[in-house]
Structures are given as structure tokens and as C-alpha cells.
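TL;DR need C-alpha cells for one chain.
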Amino acid sequence: MHIFWRFSKRYLRPYLLWYLAGFACIFLTQGLAVLIISTVKNAIDAVTLDQADAATIVPYAWRIALFALAIIVVRTASRLLVFTPGRFIEYHVRNDYYQSLLYLQRNFYNVHESGDLVSRCSNDISFVRAAYGFGFLQIANVTVTLALGIGAMLAMDPHTTLYLAIPMVIAFAVIQLSISYMLKYWRLANEQVGELSSVCLSSYKGISAIQNYHAEPALEARFGQINAAYLDTQTIVTRVRSFIMPMVQLLGNFSVFVVLLVVAPKVLQADMTLGELNAFLGYIAMIMPPLLSLGWMLNTFNRAVPAMERLEEIITAEPDIPTAVPETSDKTPGALTFSCRKLGFRYPETTKNPNPFELKEVDLEISPGKVIGVAGPLGSGKSVFLETLLRLNRLQPGCVLVNGDDGATLDLNRYREFFSFAPQRPLLFSTSLRENLLIALSAEEREQEGVEQRLLQALEAAGFDLDPKVFPNGLETEVGVKGVMLSGGQRQRIALARALLKQADLYILDDVLSAVDHETEKKIIQNLRSMTPKRSFLIASHRISAIQWADEILVFDDGKVAQRGTHDQLIKQPGFYQEIYQYQAEHPDE
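>> reply
TL;DR here they are.
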């Protein structure tokens, strides 16, 4: 239960007054129910007297009606006061969960399936909300009902009440043992739901490949296997639950049998009135529903605790970054120097990958206005180098200096303000072109005058033609999920325009021209060259024409810089650069 207390300390504390007010309303509700039972008892005893007539019952009827109306009000208030904090807690948990995901580093996502993360955000948070809403309501309801109901019965006849305690204790023991047994299956069910979500999400992302290679049967078999395991787990839980509920209900009915067996002779001997017998039956009817719901309450909490463990793993996860230290140098925008000294990175070893890829030591100086090209065969380490420089991978101290400051120990947000990045695989959000571009600007910049002109200039620089015939809604055109409404080249140019829109000191472009035609590429390169007096670029590309204008070109091979120099120098040296240049010169249309 340590996880439950930690979670409650984080999220429940601001709503203690809500819960206290709600519990007070629950107490009033059950207290009024006891008064109704007591009033019914007195009414029955009153009408059994010889001098009773029709008018005898009227005061009791009005009193019962008044108590019933009051119960409607306080019961409704109790639900509002207890359920509402549960919704607020759900809101804060979702925000913290999402915020944590935004700041966690790339290595975290290498070991956590996206489908499982989605499952935690949906199913697990729902379990937590149920615990802080329905669960807390039932805790108070059961506690107050048992206390008031049993207290009232003890006041009437302690001897008979002790007989009634026997089936109630047995019912509670049965529920507790069953819940303890089911706990491991609830945890397993949560994990299996996460696996199902991962399979569904990965299948959705790769639906084109699945259909092209007719891999539907294999995916169906994989999904069916996981789904069958989940069915088996839920079947076990259902079997245990189907045993608990009838057993508890049987014990409840047995309580009525005990009352009739013990109390009936007392009524016949005039040791107990008929009203008191009816009161005992009324208190049993009052106690049994909360007792029956005890299983559901424990079910709610025992499903919430594993969910809290899974959520806390994400919410409290610390980004794998060094502690930030203040900047020491005076950084003038557009005048920053980036120095890479033995920059390297190695992916962690796993059972599936005992020999992970390693980026070996890279030395590089990027002064203001300088253009660096990056070339190399597939898998040579170009993207790993760029991602490590951006601190998407863990950056070791002393490897990157920004005007002399250690980039690894600068505040991460501040560090990334120096860069603008267009990735190899552009991601567009399911919204308009305008909103996809505005992501690059801060909230203050979006409100400034001339934003519209900046957007259009960025699109023009990226070679994106906002043709009214193709885009009749202009910047308000919806692009669909991941930009599905656009071609590959259009997605790349939107991503490039977004990168150029941001005011940065170093623009990192990772193969952003691979899907555009050569004429568009020439136009884009010309636009980029016009920016170089004020902006620095680091451009990775498989096309020599995209980087041959760079001041220096690095040629990667197997995670290390195999060659470096200008275009004119490299085409004279035997190696990958010379070979790919000659091939592309002979096949200009490829």
C-alpha cells in the first residue's frame, strides 16, 4: 500500500475538504436511514396498541417522508463531493503523465512500447479515477453503515446482534481471500491490455507494409494469441467473482434466517415487540448492500494499485540528463560557436542486441555562418550523430561546447533553443498547415504582427508552392494524421519550412530533400545559401548535390568519420564520397 499512500499524498491532499464534506453527507444519509427504520419501528409498535386509530400513523408518515426528502438531498451532495475530486485527480494525473512523456529521453522509448504507454494513459488512469471516486465513496458508505446499523442493533438487543455478526464476518473473510487471490491476475490483465494496445498501434502504423506483404494472417495470429491469454486471465477473475457474489448474498440471506430463528421466539413470548423485529430486518436490509458492494470496492482498489505502480513509473521517471548549471558566457544571437570534442554515443546492450551501434569520437567546429555537410552509406551513423548533438541521445559532459559552456550541463530547454531540427522522417500533426507551422513559434511570437508573412516566407524558402488549386483553403488546409493528405515531398518541405521558421543559431537538416525533385532541390539550396551569412547549417543527405556547397563535409562509415574536407577535395579521394558522386553524376534522375 506504500504506492497508494505516495500517490494520495501527491494528488489527494488538495481535495481533503471535499472528501470530508462528502463523508459528512454520507454520515447524514445513513443516519437518516437509521432514523427512518427507528420511526417505522415506533409506528408499528404504536398501531398495535388497543387505542390506535388511523390518525396514529400520520405523524410517523410525515416524519418518514421528511427524512426521505432529506436523504435525496444529502445523498446527491455526497456523490458530487466525492466523485468530483476523482475527476480532478484524473485531470492532474493525465497532465503529469503527458508532461513526463514530453521530457523523457530517447532511450526511455526504446524500452517502452508506445501501445503500452497509451494503455496506461487510458485504462490505468480510469482505474485510479474509480478508486478516488467510487472506491472512496464505498469506503465511507460501508464504514458508516456498519457502524450505525450495528450500533443501532446493539442498542436494541446485543445478544441477537452477536449472532448476526457471524455470517457478516464470514462474508468479509470470503471477499478478502478472493481479492488477495485475484490481485496477481488483475496485474497480469493490465499488462496484457498494454500488449494488445501495442500490437494494435504498431499494426495501424505499419498497415501499408502489412497489406503489401500480405502479412495479415501473421498479425491476426499474434493478436489472437495475446487476446486468448487475456481472455484466460479474465475468465479466472470472472470465475472467482461469480463465486464471491452468490456466496456473500447467501450469507446475507442467512442473516435474515438467523434473525427469524433467534428473534421470533422472543416476539411470541412478548420479550420483543413486532416493531423491533421489523427494525432488525430493516437494519439487515440497510447493511447488506454495502457489504455486498465491499467486493466491488476491494476490486476497484486492487485494480487501482497496480495501475498506480505503472503510472508512477512514468510520472516519476527522471530524464537521463546531467544536472543543469548556469550559463557563463554572453551569447549573442547569431554569433554562437559549437565545438564537438570526441563526441560519441553507444546504445545500451540488450539481450536482443548484444552488440549495439556505437558512434565513435567526432571532432567538429561550427562557427557562425558555416555550413557542414554530412554524408555516408545507410547505417553509417549520420542520424545518430545529429540526434546526439541535439541531446535526443544522452550527451556526455565535455563533448559539445557552446561558446565555451558545456552543452551537456546546460538546461535542456535552453540548449535546444540554439537549434532548429528537421528530422529524416517528418511528422505532421492532424491539423491545419498553419498549426503545423506555428509549432515552431513561441506563444508570444504567434501574437506578434507579421506572423502570416513569416509563414509564407518560410514556405517559399522550403520550396512549398501554396497553389490555390491544390490548397483552396490555403494555410487552413487539413493535412490528416501524419500528413497523410500530402505527398512525401510535400511533408518534407512543410517540415523544412517549420524548421526555418524558428529563429535559431544552428539549423540541423537530416536528409530533408530525399523526396523532392531536382529542380525543387536546386531552388531550396539556393534559398538556404542566401541565409548562410546569418545562419549556420548542418545538413545530412544522400544526395551530393544537396551538400556539395558546404564549407566542410564529413563522410561517416561504421559510426566514425572516415573522410572530411570540401567537395572538391573529397571527389579526388578514393572512397564512398567519390563513388556516390560519380554514380549520381551518371544517373541524375535517380
